[in-house]
Write a structure and sequence with these properties.
- The complex is a heterodimer of chains A (704) and B (131).
- With 704 residues, chain A is α+β, with helices and mostly antiparallel strands.
- Chain A has 18 helices and 20 strands.
- Chain A has a four-stranded parallel β-sheet, sandwiched between helices.
- Chain A starts with a helix and ends in a 12-residue tail after the last strand.
- Chain B has 131 residues and is mainly α.
- In chain B, helix 1 packs antiparallel against helix 4 and helix 3 packs antiparallel against helix 4.
- Chain B is elongated, with a radius of gyration of 15 Å.
- Classes of the chains: A alpha+beta (704), B mainly alpha (131).
- At the A-B interface, loops of A face helix 1, helix 2 and helix 3 of B.
Chain lengths: 704, 131
Amino acid sequence: MNAFKRGLRAIFLRLEAVFEAVFGPRLNPITQLGTLGWFFFWIVVASGIYVYVFFDTGVTQAWESLERLSRDQWWLGGIMRSLHRYASDGLVIVVMLHAAREFAMDRMRGNRWFPWVTGIPLLWFLYACGITGYWLVWDQLAQFVAMATTEWLDSIGIFAEPIARNFLDSQRLSGRFFTLMAYIHIAVPLLMLLAMWVHIQRHAHARVNPHRALGIGTLVALVALSLVRPALSQAPADLDRVPFELGFDWFYLGVYPLLERVSGGTLWLLLVGGSVLLTLLPWLPPLRKAPAARVDLDNCNGCSRCFADCPFGAITMVRRTDGLAFEQEALVDPGMCMSCGICVGACPTATPFRRASDLSAGIELPDRSVAGLRDEVVAAAAKLTGEAKVIVFGCSHDANSAALADSSTAVVTMPCAGMLPPSFLDFVLSRRHADGVLISGCAEHDCYERLGDQWIEQRIGNQRDPNLRDRVPRSRVAVSWNNPSRRGTLREALAQFRVHLRDAAVAAAPSPQSSRAAWRAKLRGLAPPFRYSGQAAAYAAIAAVIGIFATWPAYTYLPRDHALLKLSFSHAGQPLKPCRRYTHEELTNTPFGERRATSCERGRWPVYVELDLDGKPLYRGTHEPAGLWNDGPSSVYARFEVPAGRHRLDARLRDGAAQTGFGYTGSQTVDLEPGENFVVDFRAAEGGFTFAPPAPAAPRRGAP
Amino acid sequence: MTLLEWRDDFRIGIEEVDHEHRALIELINALHGALGADRPGDRVEAFLGEIYASISSHFALEEKVMRARRYDDLAVHKADHERLLDDLRDLMDEQAGGAILDEERFAQRLAQWFAGHFQTHDARLHRFLGS
């Protein structure tokens, strides 16, 4: 597991670095997969509402209404329809990448289990939306989806009669089932939205919108794809014919071909078992976690800055408990605290200028006290030599800042760079403990503790309290955000910063802008032409992936020279005991309201059925009666791919106490055409087996 | 002797803010007392650090209250807070740099700032909250 996770992490870190070179940190799609998911969701909702306006929920009208939309209104309706499909496919891609990445980066362990666990039902909702959506189009793919899904649902065995029988042939198709699909396709996304809202509940300042430019680029790519390759229906569904090959959306329907290899029950077991395993993943094995932050009421006046900055919503402001005149105090929920220390960085009392003996902040990490941090800074600074001494404040997820330590560089590591109170920078520089301070953290806009880099940038930029005081020269403060794979970049940033500090030592006054932004290394980035063409290529690539796998490779459902033979019926076996008429005496002894003519015991015999093809056994099966009291009908549903041509069918059925012989038999010689859907039915009232060739194309009624 | 006396008209009407104002006045008076006594320099430095932290966190609370009540003059009021903190930081640097602190002048400056701040900015806040 760990080797797998490390390997996956290495891939994501590489990918992130490549995309950052092209998109820059703000637009990097790899670090905002979740927001892209929201974005795709909204596109799907908006385009879905538009398409629904023109959609007719009828068995024949559905296909025609969509065909009309794509043909007559290609410039808007057609685009909307394509966006609806392609954004849904994009949603699958980003959701899968998002989950894989959170797993690889270990951002779902321990107290961060909540978004992970609530994300798993989201996957089921997502697939329910996609599958019902393909159903509604009522083309050949929909026909396949309907048959395969109902057969698969029947394998659970909770339906009294196989629901796949609704799609047995065109005569049996009921519009009601179809209308139900439309309702599900609207209800599930609403549930999904609710679940998405729950999914982000434990994240303070959760990002639900991608950077605007990234959103625009993505939308343009999808619209372009919609114009180049509009999403269209396949041939209209015809339940009397079986499609041979289907353009297949592998993003949503990828598991269906498995049903031809494994039983429906096995697939359920795989998917449900897989979901349970995924749900348990945050605790496999349990995370060894540092103790949670603790509030020191002697130093807390309830200013609520820690509450405002905690990325995990672990702090609440509650009514004061110690009798002092303050209204509130901070309260940490140890079950939600990640021990990142960002709350400490927000606390106005966490300043190293205080008397060492009294130095305790209003909120502290038991394993990393502010007093300890101050002592470490002072001790490390004392050992520095050289003309441009630098103290690096690193975090435990950066590009290994600890390795930067040398005679003129001291490294002080915290759980997250966001733990650093800005007054430490003031302290180090004003007391001349070093000539410069470098803050090193993990990737920009992708802080392991979510918000550490943003808060640091805003505090230095004087946009967030506690701010770095204006008196602190920004030219002596540097930030460098790098993911763990970019050690060289961090080293280069430090080298450049040191050169800059030497130059600054000779320079007179700091430049006027220097109070606004911290110093940044001028690292080699891609030149604009490469950058923009790289972005265009990335958008084109994602559009191509969606466009291609939304219909290709085709899935062969039935070989071209075959027909589909279905044996399906519902028949109640004989009662275990025949009913008996009550005697007159019995009836007079029964209270009037409970009198009935006959006494019937519940329970029926199973139905045993045999089907031979050209004299060879094709099917043998014993079917137990349905119902809790075994008194319902027995249902049979089986399908066989049969070479087209002339065949002899022999069917036999027994439904009573006898162990040999058959109460019903039937035979017929049939000519099966390629692609024909041939149903062997059984109706006791009509004398037994019926062999039904497809009915001549009769005008079908629409759904109610 | 006390440098600064709490007066009822300093009240702004919010219990926790008034409570901290009283505590700060006590702290400043204690500092004044310490300055008057025979003392080593780094003790003063640490004392200044404590005052700086206390005032910082008091301003954090007061700014929270002002934000919560949508005080219309927050920016100006906060700028005055920053001005005092800057003054204080200047003094801390001077003291750390070995300058002999003119304690009387320092204490007067602090007291003046507080009295001035109470009578202008805090009084305006009091009127705003009362209206």
